[in-house]
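Why do we bother with a discrete structure alphabet at all? Because it lets us treat a fold like text: something you can write down, compare, and reason about line by line. To make this less abstract, here is a complete entry for Bifunctional transcriptional activator/DNA repair enzyme AdaA. Read it the way you would read a sentence in a foreign language you are learning: slowly, and without expecting to understand everything at once.
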Amino acid sequence: MNIKLLRTILNHDKNQFLFWKNRLLKNKILICELNSVYAQNTLIEYTTLLSNLIINNGYPCNDIYAIKKKIYAIIAENNAYPINTEILSQIICLFFDLLLNETYSSEIESSQKIKNHIDRNITQSLTLSDIARNLHMPLKELNLQFKAKYDLTINQYIRRRKIDISKNLLYATNLSFQDIATFVGFNSQSYFITTFKAIVGQTPSDYRKNNKQQNLA
């Protein structure tokens, strides 16, 4: 999936979302896949990637699993190929709308507001100063409130969330390490690899290889 399309979904940018969605649906390779015996697999892969993406951005897992189950049923009903690109278009739009329409209570506690803000902007380069300014909170109180709730500093949480998304992209796509690092907001590929190994215990290359092998087993 086009990395720019994923970014527009996370950023709730409807105009850019529609632009990149239309570009994707005109992609010749994708059209060939939807006209082949692998059409259903292609739809399932896109559904899985999008499901993981928005779960990693704070959407309730149980809700997504229920929605994903319904989508799989629709895909199963369309067991003949070619599959119209409109089906994939509807799947992509559904996940965009889920994030766009997600609402948060204005009365939630500060630590939850911080977490929500991070989750919604996780592909950006986030600093404590930016978070404090955007949420209108005193800078010196951010980490105290957040760590009291989640037992992590804000920067620790940001790094782990970025790595969680990276793991899904390593497993579900063939994006390069540089593209993944850029997408999740790391300043460099080397910093991404170092952080990934520190948190996961293996390099991105080993993680991708091991998970591909497990999937084939």
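What the structure line is telling us, in plain words: Residues 154-172 form the longest helix (19 residues). Residues 35 and 81 are 6 Å apart (CA to CA).
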